[in-house]
Amino acid sequence: DQQVKQNSPSLSVQEGRISILNCDYTNSMFDYFLWYKKYPAEGPTFLISISSIKDKNEDGRFTVFLNKSAKHLSLHIVPSQPGDSAVYFCAASGTASKLTFGTGTRLQVTL
Amino acid sequence: NAGVTQTPKFQVLKTGQSMTLQCAQDMNHEYMSWYRQDPGMGLRLIHYSVGAGITDQGEVPNGYNVSRSTTEDFPLRLLSAAPSQTSVYFCASRKPGVETQYFGPGTRLLVL
Predict the structure, then answer these.
(1) Which of A43, A89, A93 sits opposite B42 (nearest CB)?
(2) Which residues of A touch B29 (CB under 8 A)?
(3) In degrees, to the nearest 5, what angle opens at C-alpha B9 toward C-alphas A82 and A93?
(4) CB contact, 8 Å: A32 with chain B?
(5) Buried-most residue among A23, A57, A85, B4 (CB within 10 A)?
(6) A13-70, pLDDT tens digit by residue?
(7) Quick one: closest CA in A to B95, which residue?
(8) Are B48 and B58 in contact (CB under 8 A)?
C-alpha cells in the first residue's frame, strides 16, 4: 500500500519555465512533508519542507504548496535551470517520525 | 564535518554470503536510519534507531540486522544474502525534533 504517491515518473521542462512536481498521500496522520533531490550516484539531499499547519512555503526558486483537504502537495521550481535535472522524492512524516517516501519523479530541464 | 559516510561504495556478494554495511555520522545525531532504493519503489525504511542501544524495524526489515552501540555508528548486517537484496542502500541521520534527514552517498549491492 503506497501511502505517498508520485504518479509522474518523469517530467521534461524547458530552461526558464516552471517545473511542477506533484505528490499525493493517503494517510491523514502525516503532518510534515519534505522534498528531496537526488543526483545519480549520490544520496538524497533535503530541498524544502512544509508543516501541515501551513499551505505554502517558499525558498528562493522553490515553493511547496500543501492542500490538506485533497491530500496533495506540489513543488514548483521557477525558473527551472539545467542543474535542477535530478530525481525528486516527496516524503511524509507522522507521529512516529518515520519518513515515508514516494517513488520519485525524474525532472529533465532542457536548454 | 564529513557528515554521513558509508562503506563500501559497491559490493558484489554470492547468495548465502554475509556482510556488514557500515554507516557513520559525525554530527552527533541521535536518530539514524537505513533505507533501500529499488527502481519504481522509492526509498523504503529497513531499520532505524533513536539512540544508542535502541533499534526498531521499519517497512522492510526481513533479512537485515542492526545494532547501535555508539551514537556515531549504525551498521547494517546481511546474515545470508539473497538476490532480492540487490539494491542501493542509504544511511541517514537527524536530530530529534528535526524532520530533515541527512543521507550518506549510498552503497550499491549486487547479490548473485
Answers:
(1) A89
(2) none
(3) 65
(4) yes
(5) A23
(6) 999 999 999 999 999 999 999 999 999 999 999 999 999 999 999 999 999 999 999 9
(7) A97
(8) yes
